[in-house]
Amino acid sequence: MLLKPIELPDFLLVNFSVIAIEQMYPAGWWDELTVAFIFKRRYGWYILQGYVPTITTIFISWISFYLGPRAIPARTMLGVNSLLV
Q: How many helices (DSSP H) and strands (DSSP E) are in the chain?
């Protein structure tokens, strides 16, 4: 039986195992299926989706510290935009 590979944005399916056993219950014999999945985390996804946008927003908010004290409208605009992002 050929399975199509599973694609996830932040995990890679490495292996899986299937165990099928018959269990005795008060209502009779029942089949029990246990599946275990082993995933490997993709760190590149976290770097591109989490760290890069956060660091970029922080750097944009720091620009207002380098502007002169008379550039109040520009400082306000940078502060509000960095919070809205």
A: 3, 2
